């Protein structure tokens, strides 16, 4: 199990949080996720054999947000 925190740009309202949460919930391999509106961060626990961090980043960016950093 891997854990990452992504710093996003473009989360401007609570609807953004719901959109991202919905995406993460339907993504295979993601076990747990948390979207932190105030800090613009997304925390994800995922199974690296099923989904990669690059795929998670790409999925978030397809929704129109930018991942500025991850750790
Ligand atoms: Cu929004």
Characterization of the model:
The chain has 71 residues and is of the alpha+beta class. Helix content is 32%, strand content 37%. It is globular and about 30 Å long. The two termini are 15 Å apart. It has a single domain, classed as 2-Layer Sandwich (Alpha-Beta Plaits), CATH 3.30.70.
Which structural class should the secondary elements be placed in? Answer: alpha+beta
The largest sheet, given as strand count, sense and whether it forms a barrel, is: 4 strands, antiparallel
Number of domain modules: 1
**Portion of residues in helices?**
25-40%
Shape: globular
C-alpha end-to-end distance: 15 Å
Please give the number of β-strands. Answer: 4
CATH architecture: 2-Layer Sandwich
């Amino acid at each position: 199990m891997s854990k990452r925190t992504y710093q996003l740009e473009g989360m401007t309202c609570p609807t953004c949080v719901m959109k991202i949460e919905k995406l993460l919930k339907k993504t295979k391999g993601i076990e747990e996720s948390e979207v932190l509106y105030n800090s613009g961060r997304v925390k994800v626990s995922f199974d690296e054999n099923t989904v990669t961090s690059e795929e998670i980043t790409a999925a978030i960016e397809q929704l129109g947000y930018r991942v500025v950093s991850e750790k």
